[in-house]
Batch of 4 targets.
Target 1
Amino acid sequence: MLACVKTAIGKTEMLDLPIPKAGPGEIVIKMTMCTICGTDMHWLDEIPNEILMALSPSSAVPQGFLMGHEAVGTVHEVGPGVTRLQVGDRVISSCLTGCGRCVHCLHGDFSVCTGGGRSLFGCEAEYFVVPFADVNVTKVPPEVSDENAVLATDIMSTGFGAIDRAELKFGDSVAIFAQGPVGLCATAGARARGAGLIITVESIPERIEMSKRLGADIVINPKEKDPVSEIQSLTDMQGVDVAVEAVGTPATFEGVTRAVRRGGTASLVGLYGPVPQVSMFTMTASFYHRRIVSTLCPSGHDRMTRMLELVRWGRVDLGPLFTHSMKLTDTPKAYDLFRSKQGGVLKIALTP
Ligand SMILES: [Zn+2]
Ligand SMILES: [Zn+2]
């Protein structure tokens, strides 16, 4: 089968590899659509293969690390012990898998599993393996497009997670810093959950347009105005009820901590990658009475089902986030395009 492999920092190659086999509790999925995510870029450009493969030994092939963690497909093989799934089912798996048995999984926090769950990998291939399949895999209703199904596995759940873990109430004001794919999902999530004023912060023209389309009332361009002072003046100098950080930079972290009102919630979903530490202003009124919530893609069967139900019944359609479509063989080119952020690229659909 064809698979995208990271052979060196910043370099991917398409290789012909054996189709994987399903071990106990596992399934093998035949991919029908996959995509590249911002997390893939951290893995590709910043983290050496030795570290990635040490974290997850089964992610290794002799040539390197198997790329990709967001995909939809049909069940190709069912391993021993899997009871909920059959060959031919159209399915997704959360991009972070839980074991279903450790203390975190029993709390419902599958994405921070310590019992052997792991990030998916190898989804940018014709076939890939999902561990603990009964816990992490959900059947996709026929009304849900491949595009929306792929997004439910990670960025939709992550962006919506920024909003629901902030416990946003009907009519709350929200500011979302950065409108990349995850930030745009947070915008759509704020609208779906009943926010009042939705302010977003973004400078790329295509992303500004998409932000308005998915629910932003006001988009602040940080190249033209200071986002924090603008947010303060839009909220009678009180700050927003919820401020979301969706890119993972010290500047946007500082932005959300200063844009939130007294008693409000700063909600973090950016991946800080190479940023080892962030700091907060203590000389602001809001410092002494607020919540800070960080979220790693809420995962597991129940979460995936809920995301798919929002799409199935027409509450949300994130299909427009797919700006480009390419063949799996062109995945290395797709990485270059995604990294460049040129041509209005948000998500790239990759099909066999
Ligand atoms: Zn992802
Ligand atoms: Zn677990």
Target 2
Amino acid sequence: MALKNLWRLSLFRGALWIAVIWAVGGAVSGAQAAVRSVIVLVADGVGVAHTTVARWVSPSRSLPVDSMKVFLVRTYGAESLVTDSAPAATAFATGHKTSDKFVGVLPGPVTLPGIPPVPPERQQKPVATVLEGAKFLGKATGIVATSNVQHATPAAYSAHWPDRNQYNEIAEQQVYQDLDVVFGGGRKYLRPVSQGGARTDGEDLIQVLKDRGYTIVETREEMLRTQASKVWGLFAEDAMERDLDRAVFAPWEPSLAEMTAKAIEVLSRHPNGFFLFVEGSQVDWASHGNDPVGVVTELLAFHNAVQMALDYARGREDTAVLVFSDHGNGGMSLGNAMTDGTYSRMAYASVVAPLKKATLTAEGIAKQIGDNRTESRIREVLRRFWGLEDVTAEEVARIQGYQGPHLSNAIAPIMSVRSNIGWTTHGHTGEDIILYTYGLDMPMGTMENTDIAHACARAMGFRLEDVDAKLFRPAQEVAAHLGGRISIDKSDPENPVLVIQKEAGGAVRFPFSKDLMITDGKTSRLIGPTIYAPHTGTVYLTLEKEP
Ligand SMILES: [Zn+2]
């Protein structure tokens, strides 16, 4: 044996021993008893400065997370030091770093050092999420977001597809996931084009939800009133309104905190505990727009939701709460190039007061101005909703001359200048983010975003690899198990079906993206949907039935 191989063998043995010692040590030292329920709350696109500024602006000058344990988390993806939401969420939902725009699947080619490459035949393979693991254990599950619920972060917990923008595909998988509570926007991705929706496959997924016993709610009042144990809230065709702008533009919508409290109320009635994912989706969008009003108000609305989770978890011994972001955004800073060295200018009043006066986000201001970009209209709106009397002729001219798709981009700098907030980019940034925990037994330190997934799974008492092996078996392997051969029925090209033709006669059919198994015309429900991996053409499925 070559010296190199000997070294490899001893390294392998060493790793094995470390694993054994770790496992035994964990058992001996009495690792945390499994928690019943886990609540994960993610504020999308939040760096440290976002949180600092929000804390200053909050009425109590404190945030619910201030009393939680704190960790630092590395956010990079499989090929990039700056991540998109989709691979970031896949990392903390499944425990795997993945490629740009992928949700809930393994990466394509890996280019960053330190991340194990994936062999070609396994690239883009679906991988089990923490939510699916909880469901597998018989727990109730829920998703809450202020974007459309098919958006990257909620999608990474509940769907598997190498393109986050395929909302129709993601929506279908989510509907067939047997979730207990879903609150957010995105109604149009559940309805066929013929009914004014976005679905090109002709499927009416709202009818499917009704047939499956869901109560559909479309307003805050309907949501608060329902006593249903399976409830799907569709509050907007696409994204919900920003928190600060809701009263003006969409007063029927619930707040993120109200959705979170209701989701906990519904899920906590379940005897086996629950997993709930909550996203403050639009802090990210306000950061892309470099809008400090949007960032602060969306983030404070998120922290109101965190308070709901902590109110539930405190005083119980059985619920863990994790709060974190997926990546930084905007390079937001408290202090900007204009205030270099003049710290006396950075008084409380120079940062907080302008932000506190605002009653609409930059996006809301843009909507109020609309196409009527006269100087008097611009001045009137900025006076009424931002309390500004000192708008310059140059600022007015910049709004009037703006040609791009987001008028708010010409409006937001007016507030950034007055509140001494700096920005370096309209895109994401690659620094570490903060993880806050309650009720979770973890060693102190820094970690990878993938570690968050394993910590959640470990807390509930399962291993993601074990769930993965049960949920996503290659069709070839399942066909061998059933004694048959596979083909794909594309007679309806928008709704393909995996067919396993048994040698003993008869066929078993598995429609793509659904949790259905059809044998001799008899339909039974599986514990998760059948997933097609377009890159390799492999179909992955489970034979485990819904209990
Ligand atoms: Zn994001």
Target 3
Amino acid sequence: MTAMLKVATPPEWVTTALKDFDAFLLDHAACERKASAVGMSFVVRYPDRPLILEPMIQFAREELEHYHQVMRLCLKRGLVPERDEHDEYVNLLMKEVRFGREERFLDRLLASALIEARGAERLALVTDRLTDPELRNFYSRLARAEEHHREFFIEMARLFFPQAIVDHRLAELAEVEARAIQSVPHRSALH
Ligand SMILES: [Fe+2]
Ligand SMILES: [Fe+2]
């Protein structure tokens, strides 16, 4: 299991996720697009923190590139994007983000780290099940990228907060993440 997560995704998840691979791909593309938007939302919301500018723009570009790559796969299969589905898992986690400028900043970074960690874990599970070598290679590359993103958000938090505060809040939010991921039904989607 990816470090930082409190519960592992059960093996039967991947069977449901890949039952309708087209639906999975479309949802996955939307997740990459939303990740890019999260990076840009940090840029927009925290103009007073120039330290995050360069790395957040880089992050947003990487996620946009992932989106582009997954969307190309969708288009090759004749799939077209649909209206975003409500992501109950993300909503449950974001509900725990505190108010207060500093708290909110920290919680947003750590929730993003956990979402990246879960994405990395699940994309690795998907990679193991894929048989097409090209697709397998692609998913394995994406899974590794999401692992870097998990670390990236922790590094961003460490720029502004002491390690003990980061570790303590991360442990709390990891409990919330574990409850959230276990409470949503399995479907052909990343969450
Ligand atoms: Fe990504
Ligand atoms: Fe990512």
Target 4
Amino acid sequence: MSKRIREDKIRCDACPVMCYIADGRIGACDRYGNVGGKIVRCDPLTILDRRLEAGGAVCAFLQSDWDGSLAGDDVFVSGVGSGTTYPDYKPAPFIVSREVEGVDVITVVSEAIFSYCGVKVKIDTDRHLGHEGAVVRAGGEVVGHVTTSEYGSQMLSLGGVDHLTGGSKAEGRVTCDALLRLCNREAVELCIEGGAVVIVQAGQAPIVDGVREERMRVGCGSATIGMFASQWQGLVDEVVVVDDHITGVVSEHQAGKVLNWADTGIRIKGRRSTPGRYFQVAGPGKGWGGTDIKDPLTILNPWLEKKGARPGLTLLMVSTTGEHHGYYVLDEGLVPQAAPLPDALRASVDLIAENCEPALCTVLFAAGAGGSLRSGVTKNPVKLTRSVQALKTHVTCGGAPAYVWPGGGITLMVDVTQMPEGSFGYVPTPALVAPLEFTLSRDDYRALGGHDGAVRSVADILEHGGEYGAEVRIVGPVRDGGDE
Ligand code: SF4
């Protein structure tokens, strides 16, 4: 770049990219611009006011009508729109003092650049999305993998420093973009090797191979037997709850035994764990109960007459969501024949469905905040780490409580639906940018070597703004479910 062109531009030093930005233009991350020869943050500083209704917002031009000075604990200056401390030798953009129940409380506010970050995605579905360890792609690039299944959900681990920095430039760029969109609650299509294509959006139902998932299962097959055994007694001779993990059989299950359920001579394929609980009755898939079967009778071996099988014996087979069900009667040869579901049993199938929760995608942002940004809080960074670990310093992201992992460092996780809309940004290094606040008493802040001289009141911030501008938006809190 020629000297003359560069003289017309000014340098943004809010991240290592150090863009030179011409007047009226914005930098590579769309978050900073040159306004009349000054670098400003393009988004306003977000202040949360718990007295406002969820979704209620006070626009910048109405600030004069808004009284934050009397608000105490109700008003919280979040990191959203605050700017970064990069390169971190200086105090954080805002170090805010508030009086809460007679105690002077400090909140250190910034937008942190996270080179070490990713998301843990929980997808409520029984449908098999892919084997544990299978790679997950977005836009053709590997961005993560399938991790352990949880109870009624399948989990993905996406991003992380290996994908952001350890692969090709394209892998890092696409990973950063997928993380950014997931964290900002946008829909992202993910392709699981050897498995499904799933559209994930925080707070919304997953879409698996084009089908929107409706229900999260009521429990595993064994748990379903435990919950509903007594409601089936007297209405049907046998019940099998088909589940890829633990298929339940009521006549053998402990719940059935306690109810003196009669033997039926049923025999289930797969590996018997304990009475009435079977593993691996079929392969994983998108059929009944997360198995690959379309016909549930394929998991049955021939019935045993000497163990109670008889012509006319009735059988209900149902999946863990109630989505699949079938009713059968044994014929003279002890072969189940499909029959209409009696009305008396329909209520129990409906009850399974009723007890299922709506299927959702959950996105937790997971990141390490133990790096140089701590210098924006204190001149002695390890004291911040120790203060967080001692629970003297409370960590939030955009006002949402963060879970901090025990052990070394400040490794946090936060539910993105609890954060204000548009909380996340990125820099092309690549890394994500997320709001981060450390809150502690002023006495503790001084004790850990905090930048006490940089402490300001909310009123002062409203009047004078900060290094990157003075625009403010005041919004109501985020409620469960993600609505502001
Ligand atoms: S990428 Fe953004 S934060 Fe980084 S220097 Fe450019 S404008 Fe500033």
